[in-house]
Design goal:
By secondary structure, the protein is α/β, with parallel strands linked by helices. It has a single domain, classed as Spore Coat Polysaccharide Biosynthesis Protein SpsA, Chain A. The protein has a seven-stranded mixed β-sheet, with helices on both faces. Helix 3 crosses helix 6. The longest helix has 23 residues.
């Protein structure tokens, strides 16, 4: 059995799913892949079933409806631990993350890192085809979260990650509150606070070529509010 599971959450990603799965299977042929589909109305789940029927390394977890990125990942994490995988990968379905970076990220994880983050905002990392406003929001949001949470991580919002199974067990012992993109900030920060070894690996993030972005004002606001609350609570605890 493979010791790595790549978890790919999907909602209306029919146009990009085949391509990203092919790239994953090429980059890490010994890894298994789990597609977690939230009842996509565009038929992504059905396509995932077809791809899984042709490839024993691919499986599909169907959820009854759209319930947030964080909960999709938590469902995938729980299944990964149940099946005994040593490392679990987070990867977006839209093709923005390059699976060719996975061998290097997995090497860091196998070398002792509890969490490896594919980072856009460290030397060697970059973003392609983003307008200046989106780049500014991402950079600014990460700086804000980093300062308020007193984190050493430069790209807390990145969704390209490798977790060690022990780190996932630690996360699943406590309720993760965030449902949207704040989930990425919360999970990295919780592990960092617990004393886990968190490393960043530079990546090139490329804007999606197909489908529509799920990023919206509500998702950004949720993350901003939660980061502010977490940071202020942590400061109050330290003062007490």
């Amino acid at each position: 059995m493979a010791d790595v599971l790549v978890v790919v959450p999907t909602y209306d990603e029919r146009e990009s799913l085949s391509g990203i799965l092919a790239r994953v299977r090429s980059a890490v042929p010994d890894a298994d892949v789990l597609v977690v589909d939230d009842a996509s109305p565009d038929g992504t789940g059905e396509l995932a079933d077809e791809l899984a029927a042709d490839d024993p390394a691919v499986s599909v977890l169907h959820r009854p409806g759209k319930d947030g990125l964080g909960r999709a990942y938590l469902a995938g994490f729980a299944l990964a631990l149940e099946r005994g995988y040593a490392h679990v990968v987070e990867l977006d379905a839209d093709g923005s993350h390059d699976p060719a970076e996975l061998p290097a990220m997995l090497a860091l994880a196998r070398g002792g890192a509890h969490l490896v983050i594919g980072s856009r905002w460290i030397p060697g990392g970059r973003v392609v085809d983003w307008p200046w406003l989106r780049r500014a929001i991402s950079r600014g949001g990460n700086v804000y979260a980093r300062l308020l949470l007193r984190s050493r991580v430069h790209d807390l919002t990145s969704g390209f990650r490798v977790f060690d199974a022990s780190a996932l067990r630690l996360l699943l012992r406590h309720e993760v509150a965030s449902h949207g993109y704040g989930f990425q900030v919360e999970t990295a920060w919780r592990l960092e606070r617990a004393g886990c070894r968190v490393l960043e690996h530079p990546i090139t993030f490329v804007e999606r070529r197909a489908g529509a972005s799920k990023m919206g004002p509500g998702i950004v606001l949720e993350a901003l509010v939660r980061v502010t609350v977490w940071g202020l609570r942590a400061r109050l605890r330290r003062r007490r």
